[in-house]
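Page 42, continued from yesterday. The earlier attempt failed because a stray header line got pasted into the input along with the sequence. Redoing it now with the clean sequence only.
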Amino acid sequence: MGNLRQAIRYSFRMALREPGFTALIVLVLALGIGANTAMFSVVDAVLLRPLPYKDSDRLVALWEKSNKMEEVSVAYPNFLDWQEQNRVIEQMAAFKRDNFNYTPGGDPERVPGSLVSADFFATLGVNPVFGRAFTRDDDRPGANPVVILSHGFWQRHFASNPSVVGQALKLNGKDYTVVGITPAGFEFNGENDVFVPLGLNADKMSDRGTHPGLYVVGRLKPGVTLEQAHSALDALAANLGQQYPETNGGTHIVLVSLYEDTVGDIRPAFLILLGAVALVLLIACANVANLLLARATSRHKEIAIRAALGASRFRVVRQLLTESVLLSVAGGLLGLLLAVWGVSVLMSLTPPNVPRMKEIGIDSWVLGFTFLVSIVTGVIFGLAPALQTTKIDLSESLKEGGRSATAGAGTRRMRNGLVVAEVAISLMLLIMAGLMIKSFMRLRSVSTGFDTKNVLTMRIALPAARYGEKPQQIQFAEQLLARVSALPGVQAASMSNGIPLGLGSETPYMAEGGAALSVMEQPVAVEFGVTSDYFRAMGIPLLKGRVFTERDNLNAPPVIIIDESLARKAFPGQDPIGKRLIPAGDKPHEIIGVVGDVKHYGPEKKTREQFYYSYLQEGSANLYLTVRTQSDPLTMIGPVRNQVSSLDKDQPVYDIKTMEARLSQTMAKSSFNTLLLGIFAAVALILSVVGIYGVISYSVTQRTHELGLRLALGAQQSDILKLVIGQGFTLAVIGVVIGIAATLVFSRVMASLLFGVVASDPSIFALASLLLILVALLASYLPAHRAMRIDPIVALRNK
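This time it went through. Structure tokens are written below.
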């Protein structure tokens, strides 16, 4: 123990003896360790920790799936049958995301919430901190409306007053009695301010063929595995298919763990980013190891004297490792401070739909990770230099007092090998970043089918208590459109029940006169109800026929507009104008126009067929107001909001975004991945430049006598330039070759993150390799230029 304390004290003295050298090493390590700590804190919170629910490993998510449709929301009658007939799930609950108009007496507010079945909180193992959870009596049509508030909503609006339980809260124009408050920090499927019993609207969800955005969560019985549950639920789905062939024929139940459902989509990207930042740390370690090897030459005599006085090689290696670990711990402490800042930066950059972001922070696990990384890093970058440095020949080392001590061949090979490793790792990161940048550019270049410039959108939800019938909804929409269209700077305004990149329901359809198909066999299209100026406001081109007019109202025959893809699919080689389309469960609609295709689900998704109703014939309580303006659309938020308030003072508007912002949001994950990989690659490139420069510069210093002799014997300055730059070029080329081979092996893991780009794209490999070689030549030029200016007489005299 005493020897260890002595080693630590000596390490401190060595660090203080060369403050510039120490500061450089600590800073390099702090960048690597800090970046890893920040990234690990995100991965730990999002991927590694269990979900914050009781026995979360038994929680599962369930959907429906058919031969025609991928995973879709669950029909309410099917949920009730699953709940009653299954024998493998202990508790099962349904939930549906929704928003509510909250009118406390002042300015109206739109609050996020969910409709949940009675067993929702019990299934998750969550108990309200005040009041009670929902009961079966609450969860049925005609029951007294009740609500459970989130802890955050309760704090913001009621100052944490527990007496709010039992009081009335006005939502969507109706009084709901508060019966409970959720625990602090409770969150499920995004932010929820209020929870309302799902069964209050059960009579509106009685159709098995309708999928109203309902999702199901369950808790497996003890001892039941996912495979056993899946087998049992398959049998249940088959039984329901026999009972209800029109709606359930060919339908399956999809079952996955709730953890997989929550984080499965983002796991690959986060793990790749964690791997990338770990590579940055390896480059930092290689740089520091090179610095220590360079310093080792000046300490050759010291180590030889230690050995001559009886110090074993183990003791000398331990001393050198103690110094490197001490430097690494200092780098870890500084890195931890950088990580605190880095976490806040990552949270600001992370897309809003990434789950569990509120759980991110620097906790004991992250502190333990930082400490472990610091120790391991110190050993990694310190061990090789320590072993190499202690390979000494006492007689040679002590000869002439160590005046001309130079690095041996083994040390030179190690330093060159470290630079090659840096180049190889940097190339991997450069290629990964290049692939993501090219993928992102391809994504941005995809035509969405609509014009996002100068378009403002916002949502309006009309409460059933006041706008429960179609005529009332249509009247509100017409009055608001007339007011908004008259505002200065408005080019076009429309109302619709969905917009691209937003909400939209999918409906089966068939062409009149075609083969008779059951609902389960019919193709599916995205449907919207829109007003006459919708296509002009969204910049969707009319290809044939006409758009809706005010005459296409409740008193007129039903009409419909289809997109180009649906026209080709339903009426191949024919003019669809004048023909009729039959949406499932509806009457035939005459086709009056064909418009361009729209990428409704985002530029990276497959184009889906779409058709459009006249809003004046269908109505809807859930509305999007779309406004195309002559200039900055954000300047219209206030005037438009005032027009809504003048029509109905209790009607809030929400989800206010430009279409450009909505498009950017759909690409936020790709943008996030591209930005971080680009930053990591840039840091790796800088560290590699430093490493190459350090090795070549040190080599020039060590070879001063040799280079002076060459010049004295008639070598030209250009020969010296080629010699020195050639060394850097050779190291870079070897590193590039190794880096290309390694990237080809590991780049396949990036395939899921790329759009329109193959993971082995030759142009990216070539550009990244060329960039790294050019940078290596630049890093070698400065030492080479210094070597050209060596005075042969001085160099020979100082041998």
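Notes: The chain has 26 helices and 21 strands.
Reminder to self: strip header lines before submitting.
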